[in-house]
Amino acid sequence: MRNSILVYINGVRHELDGTHAFDTVASYLRYVKGLTGTKVVCSEGDCGACTVLISRFDGKKMGQTHSINSCISFMYLLDRCHLITVEGLKKLDHLHPVQDAMMKHHGAQCGYCTPGIICSMAAMSEDAVNGKISIDEKKVKNYLTGNLCRCTGYEPIVKAGVETDLGQVTKFKDQYDYASMSNEFSSLQDQDVLISNKTKEVLLPHSYDSLYASGSLGKKKLTSGATDLGVLVNKGKLDLQHIVSLNNILESYKVEDTESELVIGAKASLTDVEKACEKDFLEFSQKLHVFASPQIKNKGTLVGNLVNASPIGDTIPFLRVSGAKVVLNNGKDERVISIDDFFLGGYKELDLKPDELVTKIIVPKNNYKFKLYKVSIRKDLDISSVSMAIAYKLDSGVFTDFKIGIGGVGPVVMRIKSVEQAIIGTKLDQATFKKVAKMLDSEIKPLSDVRGTSDYRKLLAHNLMLKFCDEVIVDSGMNFSEAAL
Amino acid sequence: MSVGKNIKHDSSYGHVTGESIFVDDRPVTHGELFVGVVGSPVACGVLKSIDSSEALRHESCVGVYSAADLSAKKWGAIFHDQPILVEDEIGYMGEPLCIFASTSRDDIEYIKTLFKFDIEEGKPIFSISDAVAKDSLIYAAPSPFAQGNVDEAFKTAKNTLEGKFICGGQEHFYMESQATVAYPMENGQVEVHSSSQHPSETQRVVAEALGLPLHHVVCVVKRMGGGFGGKESQAAPIAAYAALVAQKLNKPARLILTKDEDMIITGKRHPFANDYKVAFDDNGKIEAIKMILRSDAGAYSDLSSSILERGMFHADGAYFLKNVHIEGYAYKTNNHSNTAYRGFGGPQGNMTIESIIEDIACFLKKDSFEIRRHNIYENNNVKTPYGQDVENNMLPQLFDNLYESSDYKNRLEEIKEFNSQKNGKIKGLSLTATKFGIAFTARFLNQGNALVNVQLDGTIQVSTGATEMGQGVNTKIQQICAHAFGIPSDDVQVMTTSTEKNHNTSPTAASSGSDINGAAALSACNKVKGRLTELAKLIFAGEESNDLKEYEIGKGSIDPDIVFKEKVVKQVSTGKEIALKDLVFKAYFNRISVGGYAFFKTPGLGFCKSKVEGKAFNYFTQGVAATEVLIDEYTGEMKVMRADILMDLGRPINPGIDRGQVTGAYVQGMGWVTTENLFYNDKGSLISHSPTTYKIPNVQDTPRIFNVDFISNDDNDCNVHRSKAVGEPPFLLGTSAWTAVKHALSFRSNGELIDITSPATGEVILNELTGLKSGN
Fold it and tell me: Which residue in A337, A382, B256, B652 is a FRET match for A362, CA 20 to 30 A apart?
């Protein structure tokens, strides 16, 4: 058992006990280490000014370097990580090529978002030199989705990204001594970590067995990516005192792709899920694309999004219509239940016992076709007004199966069975969908809030049904008469 | 030669490495305290008492201060009507009622919850319409802007339209929220480091609040993490809070607002609700127009009067209005006190007429470009509604060039074809203009001063009242000084802005930072240069100095025969030369000043608001943009597909920096009219007070195709190096995204006018589409 975490910051070894392990990463960097290049603007992971890079020990080596929001991350979550801040990108006196490019193309105006932008772009160039991506304008924009800039209009930043001289990039594993870091981290991987101070305590078990044996479930707040908890803590809505974290359980990070299903571990990041879904669930992978920023997706998990059970939760409509199964465990028994049974119907009401945790989500490969919709005020990185997922099977122009899940229109993401039954067995035509869309109106009772009025949400749900119909008509190569809306 | 070159921003190295220091990056000094602001829980009422006993019992809370602790109770950029801390009347939700000091940064949020207030709640006013009904006026423009005879023209008009143009406010969303650290100094003095666009105003408000004479307060501004107008007036009370704690407890005090607090407490762009009536012929030529501008000033006057007037000054847009009548009223409501924001009312005025023209086009079933081209200032038709002529008018060239370069005609045809397919998507295209008047309309603000210190190695430190907020004013001043002395720009350092070096400074605002401070810096450089020129002539003439005789010069003056170039001073006629640093050293050794101080005022300005005559602006910065949008008819979602921008910026001092101002302003303007929706509940609480709920454009929202170009114009001889101001003018072009939405919707309206508000969110668009379709 260790009573401190071990983290390297820009290559320098740090052991943190309860004095600072509960700090947000951004606070620790800024106010303890004096590394003030990392900025805090929104404290909710939405603007990216606090972006830093981490590489996590994966059991064998230092894993891929990726960006996270340091303002909603806690130091205790960085055990066995290398943390790189904007100050750590320079190599001696040589700027990182993205820094050179940003200077040259006037990518920085006021400079407040710049360190975060630089870090996101450094993650991109690292992926590029590791052969994971090739850089073009679209890629640059994708890597920068989680970084707001109010000055430049982004055009000069995108240009800097595209023009970065990749030939000059030194891989982080060459810039920093990753070999000795992994050696040290490796020697620690069978140990649990328990850190406390006057008011707080966190347990980081190294395995599920250790987690169950600790008896923490149901007694301590379980954290994983903490992308939502971090916000609640920052905004004074939650005082986390007794915490248990999945962070050091390496087996929980797994995604298994078999012939018949995709098995997604509790700690598998949304980035990993996005990648894993490309082959068999392309529509879902593409939806994850606009779902959140890279920084959030690198840290947030699919299981976390499910268990958070937001009425809007953008992944849940898909999970509901795909027939996903939820694996629950309390150390003694494992339950595998259908996602429809997991949701009990009320706001955040789940079939999840206090001593249980969700260890996996299983998405079966059932040859459904999917259409997924997410409508929000801003296209990317915005919480939906309405989100909708439809899974269907169409045989000779007749729907042999049809499942619909809608978020943002009630206390929970809903399956609308009456609509489903009305469509199964009918032919694909606009008249049917017009009728069914009207049915939908009486099934949902959305609230009015900052993301739209109740009427607007009803209108959206209604129109998305029509849009689905028209899109399937086009997809099927059928004769598309005027889409009379 | 430095001027005209695309050199790097002078802070770019610090920005990309994270080494640039902003207010909260300053190390915490010994004993430093953290200040919290406690806001009103109601939008309207009377504060009877504050119970801070529980807060004071908290272990880290070391002081609570309210209006009673202030020497001056009110402040205001124009009229002193805004409480620094509420004394009795509460003006808006979240308004600061008291402040406290804590030894711990982490306790601030918790301590805020420990205060109790006895408040008698009043009946608030939240909307312009309600304020109009209750006659809650805060300012009325003294006279309408009027030309010709509107009433006569309406009598004979072929076509008339009447309507209302409504636009929402806008949060500045500077990345760095309001921030100050105040240090108590010797003899009761205070030094405040503030994220402020207006150090002199900040100095004044701090001095008044603390009861100090001005010479005991220094305001220092290294840089801001964005300003956009939001730190023109509003930085001052924030600085006063920190300074008050520093004074009371004799400890450094730091006040950094969180983004949520900042968005709730501080004012924003003014919402407007403008009425109009327009008459036009069958070609769309405007024959008469009457406009009444109405703005929501919020709870206090702040800069609302000038902002309203700038709205009136820009209600003509780029168009000649022969018979025109423009009135303006600003209303007092129980919203946050609205304030300066890039464009300063100009966008709200300009967008009104662009919207009207879009309607005329829809009404006449003609293309809006055609209507605009008929109406722009051209030839002898250059008299504005306020009497000043549009000189050096580039509008016809701008319109015609962009029409060609954006391939407007062909694209419009393609759009018509695309929209006729009815495949669930519609496109729209609109080309609008900006003709932005450059100068503070308050004449006295058009002044500045500069201090140039030439060091013995020939490098230069320059200080002005300009504040750097990313816009590159320091880089331009650096270039102007480097150019003057013929040295590389790296040999010039623009120093931290401080009221002890430059006093009575104007806010860095009205796009005029580089104009005024650049001109002052150039003048200061020329004073030193004049003396060095004279000295160089003596040296080149073979005169010597020794222990008995030193070089004596007069006032000094610049001479084309003496050229400063590449760190060398050269006499053209003789070919003789001396290294600049040697010449500087000789000057010093012979007791000749190598420091320069200069004062500059923009010449020729003078406008009478009551008589509506005179010259309000030094010149106009003009530009045009064509924006194409794509709308999903099922959901109302909108995407800006392409934007083409053409600007007249005279001879840019730094074309790279100016380009960044154009792209940044356009996208900010686009955000204002598309996704940036300020959402309040019925109690007047701002619900969209963070980026989770308030959506500024992100990188994916930028136009898929984004072309930016400048035309060349060498004739702007009324400004430093014939450059033109750039900060605000292109903001107005972002509104072409909104007029393009109107254009797109008109394809489904069957001749009916498109009646949408701004911002055109998905909900606004979908509601209009649904309404149009059910009407058909």
Answer: A382
Which residues from B are below 8 Å from A110, CB to CB?
174-176, 223-227, 469-470
Distance from CA of A254 to the nearest CA of B (A): 30
Q: Which residues of B touch A158 (CB under 8 A)?
A: 699, 702
Tell me the C-alpha distance between B145 and B142, whole Å.
Answer: 10
Going through B198-285 in order, the beta strands assigned E by DSSP cover 217-221, 253-256, 272-280
Minimal C-alpha gap between A303 and chain B (Å)? 22
What pLDDT is attached to residue A77?
Answer: 97
Dmax of chain A from CA atoms?
70
Q: Which pairing describes strands B253-256 and B179-184: parallel, antiparallel, or unpaired?
A: antiparallel
Instruction: Write the pLDDT tens digit of every residue in B112-141.
Output: 999 999 999 999 999 999 999 999 999 999
E strand spans, B143-300: 145-147, 159-167, 179-184, 190-194, 217-221, 253-256, 272-280, 286-298
Q: List CB contacts (< 8 A) between B666 and chain A.
A: 153
Domain boundaries, chain A: 5-88+174-250, 97-169, 254-476
Catalytic residues of B, by residue number, are 728
Q: What is the pLDDT of residues B550-572, one digit of tens each?
A: 999 999 999 999 999 999 999 99
What torsion, rounded to 10 degrees, do the Cα atoms B229, B260, B738, B750 define? -150
Q: Do B698 and A378 touch (CB under 8 A)?
A: yes
Query: Do A352 and A329 touch, CB atoms closer than 8 A?
Result: no
The reply to whether residue B175 touches residue A49, judged by beta carbons under 8 angstroms, is: yes
Q: Which residues fall within 8 angstroms of residue B611, CB to CB, at 6 or more apart?
A: B143
ipTM reported for the complex surpasses 0.90: yes
Query: Which pLDDT value is given to residue B775?
Result: 67
Instruction: Compare CB distances from A145 to B14, B666, B699 and report the shortest one's residue.
Output: B699
Task: Report pLDDT for B21.
Answer: 98
pLDDT at A314 (0 to 100):
85
Which of B177, B150, B167, B395 is CA-nearest to residue B278? B150
| Amino acid symbol at A204 | L
**CA angle centred on B334, ends B332 and B335, rounded to 5°:** 100
Contact (CB<8Å) A112/B422: no
Q: Is the dihedral of CA A374, A380, A383, A385 positive or negative?
A: negative
Closest Cα in chain A to B257: A41
pLDDT recorded at residue A481:
54
pLDDT at A382: 84
Flag whether residue B657 sits within 8 Å of chain A, measured between CB atoms.
Answer: yes
pLDDT computed for residue A480 by the predictor: 58
Which among A95, A103, A110 has the least Cβ separation from residue B225? Answer: A110
User: A37 vs B17: CB contact, 8 Å cut-off?
Assistant: yes
Q: What amino acid is encoded at B310 in this protein?
A: R
Residues 6+ apart with CB under 8 A from B15: A102, A108, A111, A114, A115, B9
* Whole-number pLDDT of residue B774: 82
What is the pTM (predicted TM-score) of this model?
Answer: 0.97
DSSP conformation letters of A459-471: HHHHHHHHHHHHH
Residue of B nearest to A235 (CA): B109
How many CB pairs lie under 8 A apart between chains A and B? 248
Q: Measure the CA–CA gap between A188 and A1, rounded to whole angstroms.
A: 9
CATH C-level class of A97-169: mainly alpha
- Cβ of residue B392 closer than 8 Å to a chain A Cβ: no
Give which of B95, B94, B93, B98 is closest to B124, Cα–Cα: B93
> What residues of chain B score a pLDDT lower than 50?
776
What topology does CATH give the domain A5-88+174-250? Answer: Ubiquitin-like (UB roll) (3.10.20)
What are the residue ranges in chain A where pLDDT is below 50?
Answer: 482-485
Q: What is the CATH number of domain A254-476?
A: 3.30.390.50
Chain-chain contact of A111 with B687 (C-beta, under 8 angstroms)? no
